[in-house]
Design brief:
Two copies of one chain form a homodimer. With about 400 residues, chain A is of the alpha/beta class. Chain A contains twelve helices and 15 strands. In chain A, the strands form four sheets. Chain A has a seven-stranded mixed sheet with strand order 2-8-7-6-5-3-4, with helices on both faces. Chain A has a four-stranded antiparallel sheet with strand order 11-12-15-14, with helices on one face. In chain A, α2 (about 50-60) runs antiparallel to α9 and α3 (about 80-90) packs parallel to α9. The longest helix of chain A is centred in the last third of the chain and has 27 residues, at about 310-335. At the A-B interface, α2, α4, α5, α8 and α9 of A face α2, α4, α5, α8 and α9 of B.
Chain lengths: ~400, ~400
């Protein structure tokens, strides 16, 4: 008989955001008159930059004419986009990558979920805690995370707590691990690492022969000087790190689907016998076999984010959200809450009042104000005692939510 | 140290179509004046149907306005598209599926490559031979195919030869296997199974507790009455089969990326202890964790293929290609070649002249006529002695290619 991959059965039945959606629906049914303000899920609300809209209309028209029609594109992405990436995202920071090191995809979530295929199923791994659920869930699915222990942690996963106590700067693992996921600016805490702090991770990886998966999906929100935009700003990182980028939050592509992954040619992993194997051709083979490229129309939209107009428009959208973040930081702090993030990130990580659990505070906030947050513990054990709020709403909703919270908490 | 997934190292370095591209490039450099006609790779050349173009422009405009902007969509696809699929692709054939059984994706290649994640790595498998390389390669990557033996076959794969000798109707395996990939209308041979023939496979699967992955990417090309469009036309198939569909060849979406996969609720696989596990929620969990939905703009284009205008336009494109197929069948037969397929399929499977190998005939054709084919042996051992030609070119190219072949072969 066909045997099921039993690792899947270890997964919790629901994805965090489905649990939240259910609770919100219950609230809506019981409180039909209370208007909801959703600051929970990290989805954008601003429309696409006009430069992207224009590029897409043009690309759609090309698809209407046999002479300019585009069929299968390169699995790795079109040269026009890869060149724009190299020229705009890397060269200005002194990072020199070749086109063959960039893999355009249908989004960071796909790449984050699939990248583990390149590694043996039994590599040990570490994550910062709290963390984006995909890093853990995708490893549960292939057995890499081990078994769920009584303390709610997975046996083959090292958890690196990030809390107010360590200023959200995780300590290096006290033993060696094979694979570490890092996300900076961080989802969910909204905090960052300085160049010096990130260097410690690269040095650890170089010393311990560890592979870093660096998720830089929120790079565009960095405003402070000492925060690296790419892990490749750190010397030696090309030998140990894969970097994942996204247009979702940068330019509002959550509904269009486009991101990219950098797999440097110097990056290797080992066979059991110790032979070094370059990961770049392996990821290329993976993508050529199980993926067929990103929509031509979408890639033209991504390219347009790098035009002078596109850059201005992207910047304006980011500033719009960061203005929200600024208001939220001020108001939540004034309301007596402990607030982190929101400076180089669209996420605010908010400590719950003393002794109140994440889910409890989530429900209190929902029922008292109609504002939807995300319970921090949903991102991992160290998220207990926090909720995440996002700055992706409209100015009006954001203002209104802050007023409701202030009235409630005073 | 991070250990590599050594199964990847068993893969041949190159994907078939990269090998071909290299040989074609060599020819172009040495024969710069000979104009090429590409009938090798299965990419479409007709522009998108006007109904799709119109739907995409409209969807792009929606993305330009905050009031109609679409961010994250459902990982499973939008209801508007799923309802159109149920209403048009299934209900008219008496097949009743629920919306939760349809998973819209960025294309059949992704789903075909990823579906194996739901199963234990050591399930035994069978493929028809010749076959679409993704079925085998994606299983090599996770170790399921076993090791490559001296005869060029994988140890855990049962090969079911399809040749002129058995009229391209594969025999059922003479032992039980856990997983079988079937593709009808077939890529590469262009042949089909009748309802009665497909029923034998469903019955085998029901008797042997075998999972069938049924790739129906070329369904739109079916013209004969007795050829099933969906495996679910066969009684009992929902208990044993996953069906994969694509808009790529149907409506020219190779550059847009959209397809869908049906995972019926009745479909189960077993744990080692014999417990039955429904695969539908597992695939849902996989898609929610490692995929973030298909572009809203693309899904609106897919929806438009089901409008009255869209249906007419899709039909016209299919007829365009099938007119090519008809000319090719006639001319190649007149030139003394043995020709299969091309009736319910855009592919023609052409026997090489007695004693000439696939690669040899591919090169002879290329150097004598400038026509690019695909060597049949690239699709598996039983493809030796054949080449594949596609009907996806323009009428003009197709006519010209046939004239060149006739002159060369006379």
């Amino acid at each position: 008989m066909a045997l099921v991959n039993e690792h899947f059965l270890k997964l919790r039945g629901n994805y965090l955001f489905s649990d939240i959606a259910k609770k919100v629906n219950t609230f809506r049914i019981t409180h039909p008159r209370q208007p909801l303000i959703r600051l929970g899920i990290g989805d954008v609300t601003r429309p696409l930059p006009p430069a992207c809209i224009e590029a897409m209309h043009k690309a759609v028209d090309e698809m209407a004419d046999a002479a300019t029609f585009h069929g299968y594109g390169p699995e790795q992405g079109y040269d026009f986009l890869i060149e724009a990436i190299l020229k705009n995202d890397y060269a200005p920071r002194g990072i020199h990558l070749s086109p063959a090191e960039i893999f355009v995809s249908d989004g960071a979530k796909s790449d984050t979920g699939n990248i583990g295929e390149l590694l043996r199923w039994d590599n040990s791994m570490a994550i910062t805690d709290p963390v984006y659920p995909v890093y853990v869930d995708s490893n549960i699915m292939c057995g890499r995370s081990g078994v769920l222990e009584e303390n709610g942690q997975w046996s083959n996963v090292t958890y690196l707590p990030c809390t107010a106590e360590n200023d959200f700067v995780p300590a290096l693992p006290d033993h060696r691990v094979d694979l570490i996921y890092l996300c900076y600016p961080n989802n969910p805490t909204g905090t960052t690492l300085t160049r010096e702090q990130l260097k410690r991770w690269v040095d650890y990886a170089l010393e311990n022969d560890t592979l870093l998966v660096f998720d830089a999906a929120y790079e565009a929100f960095i405003h402070e000087d000492d925060v690296p935009h790419s892990i490749y700003e750190i010397r030696g990182a090309k030998r140990v790190a894969i970097e994942i980028r996204s247009y979702s939050k940068t330019a509002g592509f959550t509904g269009l689907r486009c991101g990219y992954t950098v797999v440097p040619k110097e990056l290797t992993a080992a066979t059991l016998e110790g032979q070094r194997i370059a990961l770049n051709p392996l990821w290329n083979r993976r993508q050529c076999t199980k993926f067929n490229g990103t929509s031509y129309v979408t890639q033209r939209a991504a390219e347009a984010t790098y035009t002078p107009d596109g850059k201005e428009q992207v910047k304006a959208n980011i500033e719009y959200y960061m203005a929200n973040a600024s208001v939220m930081r001020r108001e939540l702090t004034a309301a007596g809450l402990r607030v982190y993030g929101g400076v180089n990130s669209p996420y605010l990580w908010v400590g719950t009042p003393e002794g109140t659990g994440s889910w409890k505070f989530f429900e209190q906030m929902l029922y008292n104000t109609g504002v939807v947050s995300t319970p921090g513990v949903g991102f991992g054990p160290s998220g207990e005692g926090y909720v995440r709020l996002t700055a992706f709403g409209t100015h009006e909703d954001c203002q209104e939510a802050m007023e409701r919270l202030r009235r409630w908490l005073k």
